[in-house]
Every structure is written in C-alpha cells, then in structure tokens.
Amino acid sequence: MRELLNGSFNGKVTVPGDKSITHRAVMFGTLSKGTTHVYQPLLSEDTLDTVKCMVKLGADIDITDEKITINSPGAESLTSPKELLYTGNSGTTTRLLMGLITGLNLNATIDGDDTIKKRPMDRVSIPLEMMNAKLKLNNERFTPVEIFESKLEGIEYDMPIASAQVKSAIIFASLHNKITTVIREQEKSRNHTELMLKAFGGNIEVDDTTITVNGGNTLTPVDVTVPGDISSAAFLMVLAAIIPDSKVTLKNILLNETRNGIIDVFNQIGADMTIENIDDSLEKRGNITITYKPNLKPFTISGDIIPKLIDEIPILAVLALFLDGESIVRDAEELRVKETDRIMAVTNELSKYGAEFEIYEDGFKVLPSKLKIQDIEFKSYHDHRIAMMLIVMGIKMNHDIKIDNVECINISYPNFIDDLKSLKGR
C-alpha cells in the first residue's frame, strides 16, 4: 500500500471483463449444443465457481488467460449433478442457477460460503414456485437450496424490486418448456440476460419494462467478447477524479444503458470526462478518460438510476467526501442485502476517517466533514467493493492503512493492486 501513496495516477488500463456478462455467457454456452468461445472473460473466484457448476451439469470447459471455451451437449443432454453445486460468494451464480436448474427439470442442491448463507434466496424461490417449481430452502429463505424435478408453467410476474438476478432466474426457468412467461419491472434493471438470450437464438421480446419469454427453443452457440466491467472501472474513475494531476484512461468499458449510472453521476458533478465509443455489437462499449478537476459539485441519486450503479455506491461515497457540498443516496435499500450490509459497512469504515453521514434505511447523506488520519485498522467485511473502496480512500488520504481481508478483491478484480501500480509507473 505504501508504494501507492504520494503523487498522481496516469496512464491506460484495461480492467477485467464484466462479471455479470461472463457468468451469463458461460451459462448460455452450457445450454447451447456445440462450442461457445467467451473472449476476454473475467477469471475471478465468482466466475470460476460458475464454470465449476456448469461442468458438474455436463459441459466440457477449457480456460486460458484470454478465453473460456465451452463444449456442451446442449440443454436436453445436461444431467442432474451428483455433487453439490457450490457457488462460493456469488449471489449471481446462486440465483441464476436456481432458475437454470428448475428450467432443466433436474435435481440439485445449491449452496455457497458463509456470506451466501445469509443472503435472501426467497426472492427467487417465490416466482419459481409460482411456476410450479419444487424447492426447499433453509428456513424457507436461505441456502442450501434443494431443487427437485418439476414441470413448469408460464406466469405473469410483477417484480416487487429491481433485481436483474431475480429477473434472470425467471428467464432461465422459462427457456426449455413450451411456456410463455411475462415479467414486468417497476424500474429497468441490467439487461445482459435479455441481450444475450436473443444472441443465442432465444425467443424473447422486450417492450420497455415488460419482458416476454417464449420457451421451448433450442439455443445456438455464439462467440461472446466481454467488455470491461464498469463496476470495477468505477474505482479507478473516482481515483483519477480526486487525486490532483491524475489522468486515467479505462479501455473497452461496458457502456450498457442499464449499467451506466456512474457516467450520469460524473456528468452531474461536472467531472472532466471523455468517452470514445468503440462499437455497438452485443453490448455497447468504449474508452473512458477521467482527468482531475478541482471544485466538483455534489450529487444526488435516487429512483431509477440506483439499479444502474448499485455496485458503485461504496466508491461513490468516497467521491462524495471530496466534493463541494452534501451528496445524497436514496432508494438503495438493496445495499442492505449485498455481500454485506453495504450501507452499514460504508458509513462505519469511512467514519473512522471522521466522515459524517446521515444514515437512512435506504441510503445516506454525506456531510461536509473534517477528515483526519487515524492509526486504526479497517474491516472489509469480506466484501470486495468495500476493500477496494478503503484502498482508494487510503491513497487519497495518503495513509498506509491496514485492512483485515483484502483477498476478497479476487472475487471481481484480482489485478486491482497491480493496475494501481502500473498507473504510478511502478
């Protein structure tokens, strides 16, 4: 950490591939008969747990540094796994698997680590049970989840919360039976599943916030190139925005309209930001350059922007501490059930620097604060976003902090420290 202190950050970085897209590409490749190549994937603990689960279903998967190759017998030839489907720390793997397994009419048990055991899975089991799926959850809410063979029926489902994971689980469950399922969202959540299903030949129609899935079609393999994860890029965007004399270009970043909320925030605060679009194939992507600029304005975020940047809110809290005024986050109660209670984690840990907050059930207000360096240890709560947030805060405060667990960064951004060093020219 000490070598990252003092001075600016400059240069170009290619951040790891998008985690959400990598998960889905591996799953759709497994459901398609033939060979799927996933280029520039994220190879992290979370996505590798997805790969291991797909292998247990019957896919043959080969991994190199730049590519995942999936050879699959197709959905109709996948079999009930003989072993536990272990999902580690990945909520995406766990929830999407629940839909995928029920849709295949297989038997399986799904479980993850101690963090996953505390995250609510009934938000997925409720719509699946409406489809006639047979599931058993621990205390009717948590993992392990036991799934039993069942013949599904189509439903019309109004989403009570904005959750791409729940929506995607319902979509996966609807694929392999001749049923029609209609999903209505209150607010548009990330749409990677819808875009990818269409690319793999699925019958899906999207009309604003209404999604209609017509099941029973055979999926066809396609090659997927994964853009850089904008949620990972956000940490370097904020770093460049708050460290004087910094200029950082992030290459090949996902610019999907359901994920680009941080772009809106940077426009709101008046940041020096330029975006160069690369292409508009399966997913929009481009290069983002952030140049340090003083006296940036505070931000207020709520409502339909929250699903577009839910994973970026911890690092946006750090950004808010160095803006000229009060910044507000509301309608983000989903943060309470992430890898940890992120509202609690963000406010607890940044308060150790003297940061002041008004805390709400669904967010917080960041107050102008007299920040100070204290020689105390920090907690990541085994949450990769919190660990990276604390590293950026420590760099800004020029403070060689101690974090109880930084290995959790491997969940989404294994090369985070190396990329920071490269931007220091070291």
Number of DSSP-assigned strands: 22
Give the low-confidence spans.
none
> How large is the count of helical segments?
12
For the terminal residues, how far apart are their CA atoms?
Answer: 12 Å
Strand order of the largest sheet: 1-14-16-15
Helix content: 25-40%
Estimated structural class: alpha/beta
Radius of gyration based on Cα positions: 21 Å
Overall residue-averaged pLDDT value: 95
Main sheet characteristics: 4 strands, mixed
- The dominant shape is globular
Provide a descriptive summary of the structure in words.
The protein is of the alpha/beta class. Helix content is 30%, strand content 24%. The protein contains 12 helices and 22 strands. Strands 1-14-16-15 form a 4-stranded mixed sheet. Strands 3-4-2-13 form a 4-stranded mixed sheet, covered by helices on one side. Strand 5, helix 3 and strand 6 form a beta-alpha-beta unit. Helix 3 packs parallel to helix 5 and helix 7 runs parallel beside helix 9. The protein is globular, with a radius of gyration of 21 Å. It starts with 9 loop residues before the first strand and ends with a helix. The mean pLDDT is 95.
TL;DR of this structure?
The chain is of the alpha/beta class. The protein has helices at residues 19-31, 45-57, 91-104, 122-130, 164-173, 192-199, 230-242, 261-269, 313-320, 342-351, 384-396, 416-423; strands at residues 10-13, 34-39, 60-63, 67-72, 85-86, 108-111, 134-138, 142-148, 156-158, 180-184, 203-207, 210-214, 224-225, 247-254, 272-280, 284-291, 300-301, 327-329, 356-360, 363-367, 377-378, 402-403. 30% of the residues lie in helices and 24% in strands.
